[in-house]
């Protein structure tokens, strides 16, 4: 055979072999039929490029070790969590039971929570906790900038390190800088171990580029915890009047639920670095502080797939009167949209508060292309005025709250590693509901959608096709 003939045979094998392999893999592993059909179609039309894209973005390669730290951790005198488990009755009982089975985490009583709005109020409290640390600090942030705010946190972490506190910092491999992570270098000068989640410059690791750790966690001495939507950066200080100020909501926690928060960080840290954080320095015996039942719920493209979304869907199903959302990005999938619209059709008041303009215009375009169906069903969509609010809040019937890092879009619900907190308390729910009502802005109407030009509508619909990869 000539060289040309051999090359032709080789290219033919590639032309037909790659699509066949992708087809087999997608059929066996893709649960979403639309995604499965889409990937197969792309690979048959563009065998080489389509296969490369499928290898990078279509395969879930995250196989995380069994998450049984609660069972492995041993306390003297038995497991104190057994006495702190809370059984929920009434209308919310089915929701509590479902999330317990889904997450394999108990609903824990004896907790206290403080709501902190914006970095102006949250950062001083967080820094105060870090400065008071005596044993351990675990900090995870999607964005951790090396600006003045980041340096304030770095200084506090460095001082804690010098007085003997064990400090672990985890940042996302994309959110905190892919090619240059300034905060990692800054912390390294103080000998602080800072790891980047899912980060690699090697081509064979590139498929992980689409999987991001979007969680925000701070746990001090295993006793005080912080979580919510707040990143670490100057834009979150409204008093600085930056080019695009970001309002947000964070939560200070005390009580047994902090143990679940610490475990969530420990699992991510072990997955990223191989180091397991165990012992009373990181996971002390939980002590009741308040009287609020709470539970941590995590999700990600691993064993936790869709758990936060399932919790939201169940809460919407059980809602009797009112469901409120505040989210910076609102592009839910068809399943979520259908459930929300059905609730509105059966008479539940649905309020969704979104920013008129977010920090990602392309996401606003995709959102706008998707809003008509909600108005048709009777949902109320509110366009909040600046500053851009990054809070992620959900309240059902002013009895149950679900807060954390999760946006209402496909990326957050399917691809990101997220963390939320469910709170069974009428006062907390009422306060959050009042906050959302106060900041909801103007109500969107069908006329607002109809008056957009055809070109704008086409642009919005086209951009929507590229989610969740934006």
What would you say this structure looks like, in words?
The protein has helices at residues 3-29, 33-45, 47-58, 69-72, 93-103, 118-131, 148-162, 182-188, 257-273, 307-318, 334-345, 361-368, 372-377, 410-415, 426-438, 446-450, 454-464, and strands at residues 108-117, 136-141, 166-172, 193-197, 217-220, 224-228, 246-247, 249-254, 292-299, 322-326, 330-331, 349-355, 380-384, 388-389, 393-396, 400-404, 408-409, 418-424, 442-443. The chain has 3 domains: 3-58; 106-296, Endonuclease, Chain A; 307-464, Endonuclease, Chain A. The protein has 470 residues and is α/β, with parallel strands linked by helices. It is built from 17 helices and 19 strands. The chain has a 15-stranded mixed beta sheet, sandwiched between helices. A two-stranded parallel ribbon has the order 7-14. The chain has a two-stranded parallel ribbon with strand order 11-17. Keywords: Cell membrane, Membrane, Repeat, Secreted, Transferase, Transmembrane, Transmembrane helix. InterPro entries: Cardiolipin_synthase, PLD-like_dom, PLipase_D/transphosphatidylase. This is Cardiolipin synthase. One of its GO terms (molecular function) is cardiolipin synthase activity. The chain crosses the membrane at residues 6-28, 35-57.
């Amino acid at each position: 055979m000539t060289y040309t003939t051999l090359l032709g045979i080789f290219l033919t094998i590639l032309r037909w072999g790659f699509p066949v392999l992708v087809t087999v893999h997608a059929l066996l592993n893709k649960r979403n039929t639309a995604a499965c059909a889409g990937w197969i179609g792309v690979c048959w039309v563009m065998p080489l490029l389509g296969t490369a894209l499928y290898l990078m973005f279509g395969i879930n390669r995250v196989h995380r070790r069994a998450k049984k730290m609660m069972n492995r951790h041993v306390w003297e005198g038995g497991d104190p969590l057994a006495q702190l488990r809370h059984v929920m009755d009434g209308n919310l009982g089915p929701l509590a039971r479902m999330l317990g089975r889904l997450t394999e985490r108990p609903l824990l009583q004896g907790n206290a929570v403080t709501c902190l709005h914006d970095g102006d109020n949250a950062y001083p409290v967080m820094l105060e906790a870090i400065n008071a640390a005596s044993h351990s600090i675990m900090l995870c942030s999607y964005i951790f900038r090396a600006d003045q705010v980041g340096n304030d946190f770095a200084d506090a972490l460095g001082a804690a390190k010098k007085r003997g506190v064990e400090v672990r910092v985890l940042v996302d491999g994309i959110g905190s800088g892919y090619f240059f992570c300034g905060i990692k270098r800054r912390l390294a000068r103080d000998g602080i171990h800072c790891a980047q989640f899912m980060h690699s410059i090697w081509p064979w690791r590139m498929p992980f580029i689409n999987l991001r750790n979007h969680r925000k966690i701070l746990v001090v001495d295993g006793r005080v915890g912080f979580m919510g939507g707040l990143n670490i950066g100057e834009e979150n200080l409204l008093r600085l009047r930056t080019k695009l100020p970001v309002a947000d909501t964070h939560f200070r926690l005390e009580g047994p639920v902090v143990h679940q928060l610490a475990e969530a960080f420990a699992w991510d840290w072990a997955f990223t670095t191989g180091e397991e954080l165990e012992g009373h320095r990181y996971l002390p015996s939980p002590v009741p502080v308040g009287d609020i039942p709470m539970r941590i719920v995590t999700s990600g493209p691993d064993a936790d797939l869709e758990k936060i979304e399932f919790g939201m869907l169940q809460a919407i199903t059980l809602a009797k009167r009112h469901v409120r959302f505040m989210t910076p990005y609102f592009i839910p999938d068809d399943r979520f949209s259908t459930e929300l619209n059905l609730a509105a059709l059966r008479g539940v008041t649905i309020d969704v508060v979104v920013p008129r303009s977010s920090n990602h215009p392309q996401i606003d375009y995709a959102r706008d292309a998707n809003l008509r169906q909600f108005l048709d069903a009777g949902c109320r969509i509110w366009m909040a005025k600046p500053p851009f609010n990054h809070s992620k809040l959900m309240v059902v019937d002013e009895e149950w709250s679900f807060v954390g890092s999760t946006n209402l879009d496909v990326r957050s619900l399917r691809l990101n590693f997220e963390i939320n907190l469910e709170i069974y308390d009428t006062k907390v729910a009422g306060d959050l509901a009042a906050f959302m009502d106060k900041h909801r802005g103007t109500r969107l109407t069908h006329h607002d959608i109809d008056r957009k030009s055809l070109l704008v509508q086409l642009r919005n619909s086209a951009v929507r096709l590229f989610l969740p990869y934006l």
